[in-house]
Structure formats: structure tokens, C-alpha cells
Amino acid sequence: MALGIMLQAISDFQYYMDKYGDPRTNPWFLMSSPFPTLLICLSYVYLVKVLGPRFMENRKPYELKNVLILYNFLQVIFSAWLFYESMMGGWLNHYSFRCQPVDYTDNPKAIRMVHACWWYYFSKFTEFFDTIFFVLRKKFDHVSTLHVIHHGVMPMSVWFGVKFTPGGHSTFFGLLNTFVHIIMYSYYMLAAMGPHMRKYLWWKKYLTTLQMVQFVGIMVHAFQLLFIECDYPRAFVWWIGMHAVMFFFLFKDFYNQSYSKPKVRARSPQPETTEIKDITYKNGSLKNGFTNGHTNGTFARSRTVLPAGN
User: Fold this and answer.
1) Structure pTM?
2) What residues form the membrane-spanning segments (predicted)?
């Protein structure tokens, strides 16, 4: 009985996906049903939290310097291409920053943006390697539960956007995000080259500022649709806008902790020293703090940055 109810629920859910989903993306790889994406995400969680640590338990950490350099270089190229496609698919010319409904026609530019959305979805899978590299290098303290949840959820979250609204207003988020990723992955690539690159990486602080500016731009762009008429789903407006608000304040807190001088407590019986604790970053993670854009205890979507030489 219970099995029959569950199978009927799955069938009804699939019917809804087919009826209301964008027919242009339905036959594409991984897009006909959310279950393959869900399975991949769950497999990722099992790999980095159970199977990977068990595999590395009695092994020495792998030296992945050259792999990290190549990986970050490819991510720079991938992000640059996604940014270019988003521009050519609409934001460079005919997209409106005030209100941009989804174009569900077979117009070549609309199809180009749809393809860009799918590849942005695919990029969320390539980011799994951030965590995999942590495991292979036995950086298990970086593989926090929230880090894994963040990366494990993102492909599923973006899947719904590609399924129902591939294009239009919300792609502004992807436009800004891919631009920031170009700069961030360039930073990670340089940092992976070793301590001798430290003198060229003085701009970490400004990269964090850029991330906060990104979130402000996203929340303003999204929430304006609450005050004007626009043929775009309000649910996506709230989803994107509220995430941007949350991420902004998380990164603001990170910025204050990272770049503001700590205050010395008053009336202390012992001599006090002002000590800035050593914080370890790697490929967008902060030990005991942000890990690929989220803190222990709170989600955040975009990555933090790493200082040279780590």
C-alpha cells in the first residue's frame, strides 16, 4: 500500500515536471527528471563524507599542486565562456535590467541563453572537485557538513531554474556570479602556485568587497520586481533576492572578522596582546569559518578567497 502511494506520488510529480517544464530543455541531458541530479548529489555527499575519508584513512595526502593549478585554470576559462554566452544571449543588447520575462520561443538568441543556463547548471557539478581535492589532500577539517550541503544542494536548486525558467530576469545572478568566478579562480590558480606568488595577491581584501557588491546588485535587481509589473515568477524573485540578502550579511561579517583589527578587552588582570589567528584558506575555504562560501552554522553561496602560499 505504502509503496503504491509512493510510486503514484513519483508519477504525479513527473507528470507535473513534463507538463509545466520548458519543452526545450526536457530532452537535454539530466533534464527530463530531477531524480538523476538528486542521485548524483547524494552520491557526492557519500563520497566526500564516508567513502573518501575511509579510502584516505591509511594513505598519505596526495600532492596536487599541478592538478590544482590546472583545475583552477580550466575553471577560469569555463567561467569566462559562461559570462560571454550570457552577454551574447541577452545581457549585452536586448535584455532589460528592469524587467526581463523568459523568452520561451525558438529564437536563436533565446536558445543561446537556454544553453548558457544548462551549462551554468553543469558548472555546479565541476565544483564538486573543490571538496574532492580536500579529501585527497586529507584536509578533512575543510569538509564541513555545511560545505557539503551547500555543494550538494546547488545542482538541484539550479536544475529547477533550467527546467522552468531558462532565461530572463534571474540570469542576471549567473551573469554576475560567473564574472566574479573568473576573478576568484584566477586568484586560486595563482595561490596554488606557491608562496612566491604572495606578493602578487595583495588584492584579496578587494575580492571580498567585490563579492559583497555582487550580492547588493543581485538583491536590488531581483526585488525591484516586487514593485513593478513584470511577467516573471514571483517565487524566483523571492528565492534569489533573499539568498542575496543572506549572503551579503554573511560576507560582511566575514569581512569584518578578516580585515578589522580585534579589540583588546578592558580591565583584564593579565597583559593582553592583539593576535590575529592564522586562518587557512584553500580553493575558496576558510578553516573554522567560511568554506566555499558558507560558515559553520550558516549557509552562504559564493566562495571566500585564500591568501597566497596556502
Assistant:
1) 0.78
2) 28-47, 67-84, 118-136, 148-166, 172-194, 206-224, 236-255
